[in-house]
Amino acid sequence: MRLHGYFRSTASYRVRIALNLKGLAYEQAFVQLREGEQRAPAFLARNPQGLVPALELDDGAVLTQSLAICEYLDDVHPEPPLLPRDAAQRARVRAVAQVIACDTHPVQNLKVLDRLRALCLAEEQVTAWARTTIGEGLDACDRLIAGAGGRYCFGDEVTLADICLVPQLFNARRFGVDLRWPRLVQVEAACLALPAFAQAVPERQPDAP
């Protein structure tokens, strides 16, 4: 398998974690978002959205969207599971993952921030937008996992919620968000103690400066 991504992309970060948790070997192909390589015809042939990640399978098929990729990996390589067996708990895990991947990250990613800049917003306004968006999303996540207990978001097993949370906290620090969520920070520390998470961090990727 080959993962097309970018070291600082939180969506790519999620997929790196999932691949590592599953113990799967993969190559990385680097798409330099700051240089616009995601808009090149060769990459658009893989992902018409012009976004990372894109996971190229051994048979040449290409999967896109980080949550879809993670669930594909969970279907094809079920151990260790990324989702609980209980249907209600599975829905709770997906809810936290989607708060981050659908409602928080997309409205503070590079594509949106560049559009705000194109509308002549000052850089401090762009940063404030990102901070507010991230803060609101993490506020919701903190409430959604309240009372769950355990080392991770939902108990003592890593789930898709943790795979999404850790990269979003990385993003929060990038934008100078006040990390006012002790429980989320504790979960992050527990996750980063695992090799699968530690090896996926942006600064350890070959394309990191």
From TrEMBL:
<comment type="similarity">
    <text>Belongs to the GST superfamily. Zeta family.</text>
</comment>
<dbReference type="GO" id="GO:0005737">
    <property type="term" value="C:cytoplasm"/>
</dbReference>
<dbReference type="InterPro" id="IPR004045">
    <property type="entry name" value="Glutathione_S-Trfase_N"/>
</dbReference>
<dbReference type="Pfam" id="PF13410">
    <property type="entry name" value="GST_C_2"/>
</dbReference>
<dbReference type="InterPro" id="IPR010987">
    <property type="entry name" value="Glutathione-S-Trfase_C-like"/>
</dbReference>
<dbReference type="InterPro" id="IPR040079">
    <property type="entry name" value="Glutathione_S-Trfase"/>
</dbReference>
<dbReference type="InterPro" id="IPR036249">
    <property type="entry name" value="Thioredoxin-like_sf"/>
</dbReference>
<dbReference type="GO" id="GO:0004364">
    <property type="term" value="F:glutathione transferase activity"/>
</dbReference>
<protein>
    <submittedName>
        <fullName>Maleylacetoacetate isomerase</fullName>
    </submittedName>
</protein>
<dbReference type="InterPro" id="IPR034333">
    <property type="entry name" value="GST_Zeta_N"/>
</dbReference>
<dbReference type="InterPro" id="IPR005955">
    <property type="entry name" value="GST_Zeta"/>
</dbReference>
<dbReference type="InterPro" id="IPR034330">
    <property type="entry name" value="GST_Zeta_C"/>
</dbReference>
<dbReference type="GO" id="GO:0006559">
    <property type="term" value="P:L-phenylalanine catabolic process"/>
</dbReference>
<keyword id="KW-0413">Isomerase</keyword>
<dbReference type="Pfam" id="PF13409">
    <property type="entry name" value="GST_N_2"/>
</dbReference>
<feature type="domain" description="GST C-terminal">
    <location>
        <begin position="86"/>
        <end position="209"/>
    </location>
</feature>
<dbReference type="GO" id="GO:0006749">
    <property type="term" value="P:glutathione metabolic process"/>
</dbReference>
<dbReference type="InterPro" id="IPR036282">
    <property type="entry name" value="Glutathione-S-Trfase_C_sf"/>
</dbReference>
<feature type="domain" description="GST N-terminal">
    <location>
        <begin position="1"/>
        <end position="81"/>
    </location>
</feature>
<dbReference type="GO" id="GO:0016034">
    <property type="term" value="F:maleylacetoacetate isomerase activity"/>
</dbReference>
